[in-house]
Design goal:
The protein has about 425 residues and is α+β, with helices and mostly antiparallel strands. About 15% of the residues lie in helices and about 35% in strands. Pfam families: F-box (PF00646), FBA_1 (PF07734).
């Protein structure tokens, strides 16, 4: 390994080195390559990467948007500063063009891995974990609860890194459609990367609905958070909103109460968002063609009394989606024409960041890197999709790309009509 440094000392040093540098260090010697690519070292480094979160001014943001001009998803890394400048040292090339209709839903980004699901423009069973730094991915096997076994149903996904067990996990909640709506409790399965399979859970599953299609997750403190609703005949509308929580380590469900002002709001207009080390809830005035959004923050995680209305955003030009927060207290959001902008809640001014997608295709999260999938993952090449995983050809997708925004609007309109009727039952 090295004539002058004990192996255990070298391992301790290298686990603190960025993943991008370690990929280059494999060429130092055969012994270094053997160490860096060993399951033991990758496990140590992945765990260390999750714990070593960068702080200003070193932290960066990952941005995804759909380019109508290039007919594909584009990924860029930006410095989390006032100008949101592009970081040019790391290039992310999207290798899955043609595998989805327009673009994937990003379920989450955790410890260097993206979880992608092809369910935005219709259900498919394609879910992937992708490490864009090392260009490796795995396609998740089919879960047990799928359409031809359950009949009509909806499903929700959550994703994150389980730091206690040093593993990446995907949780899938499937609701079977009955005569009067979606039956409870739902069917829950967990995919653990270390096992490579789906499995059920022994924990009690709460009789809550996570609203289909508009769901977003907030991954905080090792737990996935979604806005949900449950039956409560003491409320005027017979239902009550809450936050449903799933602990990836212990694989149990929990609940967090919402502020009174949000208990009777339409859950279609609510979603969760991570803010620092706690949870925020976005309350849009309406899901389609929204013009304003109130942002509530749980200042002390787990303390119901610490809920506070943090911001109120009102845009005359119309909003797309609130995506994240910058270090200087501004919001990152899209406007109706698909532009990514920063919004200063103090001055109510917006600043165009030069990223133009569609209003629903943009995604922003803290950027991180790891060596995950270096062993398990399949190498993927840019522009060479696996035809066996694709339901449509690249040429068909390109012919339809002019209607991506119309399809976004159509899908949302259909789901809003259906879910509005469901919630009134």
């Amino acid at each position: 390994m090295c004539d002058h440094i004990p192996e255990e000392v070298l391992i301790h040093i290298l686990t603190k080195v960025p993943a991008k540098s370690l990929l280059r260090f494999r060429s130092v010697s055969k012994s270094w390559k053997s160490l860096i690519t060993s399951p033991y070292f990758i496990s140590l480094h992945t765990h260390q990467s999750f714990l070593s979160k960068p702080s200003p001014p070193d932290d960066k943001m990952l941005v995804r948007h759909y380019s109508k001009a290039k007919k594909t998803e584009l990924y860029t890394i930006h410095h989390n500063n006032e100008d949101f400048t592009v970081e040019n040292e790391t290039k992310i090339c999207f290798p899955f063009r043609g595998l989805s209709r327009y673009y994937f839903r990003i379920v989450g980004f955790s410890n260097g891995l993206l979880c992608l699901s092809d369910d935005v423009f219709g259900y498919t069973n394609l879910v992937m974990l992708w490490n864009p730094l090392i260009r490796r991915k795995i396609t998740l096997p089919l879960p047990k609860s799928i359409f031809n076994k359950l009949g009509p149903y909806m499903f929700v996904l959550g994703f994150g890194f389980d730091v206690k067990n040093n593993d990446f996990k995907v949780v899938r909640i499937a609701y079977v459609q009955g005569i009067n709506g979606y039956n409870l409790p739902p069917k829950v399965e967990i995919f653990a990367l270390n096992l490579g399979t789906w499995s059920g859970i022994d924990a009690d599953v709460p009789e809550n609905w996570v609203i289909e299609y508009f769901w977003t997750q907030a991954f905080v403190k090792g737990k996935v958070h979604w806005v949900a609703c449950k039956m409560n005949m003491d409320r005027e509308n017979g239902k009550e909103n809450l936050i449903m929580v799933f602990d990836l380590s212990d694989e149990v469900f929990e609940e967090l109460l919402l502020p009174n002002a949000l208990l009777d709001e339409s859950p279609i207009n609510l979603c969760t968002l991570e803010y620092k080390d706690s949870v925020a809830v976005l309350d849009y005035d309406r899901r389609l063609w929204s013009g304003s959004c109130c942002i509530w923050l749980m200042k002390d995680y787990g303390d119901f009394k610490s809920w506070s209305k943090m911001y109120s955003v009102n845009l005359d030009a119309g909003m797309g989606m609130v995506l994240s927060f910058t270090n200087d207290g501004n919001l990152l959001l899209t406007v109706r024409n698909g532009e990514l902008v920063t919004y200063d809640p103090r001055t109510r001014e917006t600043k165009n960041l030069g990223v133009l997608g569609t209003k629903d295709s943009s995604f922003v999260d803290r950027y991180s890197e790891s060596l995950a999938l270096l062993i398990e993952g399949e190498q993927v090449l840019v522009g060479v999709p696996n035809a066996a995983e694709s339901d449509s050809s690249e040429e068909e997708n390109e012919a339809e790309d002019g209607g991506v925004e119309k399809n976004e609007l159509w899908m949302q309109s259909i789901m809003i009509q259906y879910l509005t009727a469901f919630l009134k039952r």
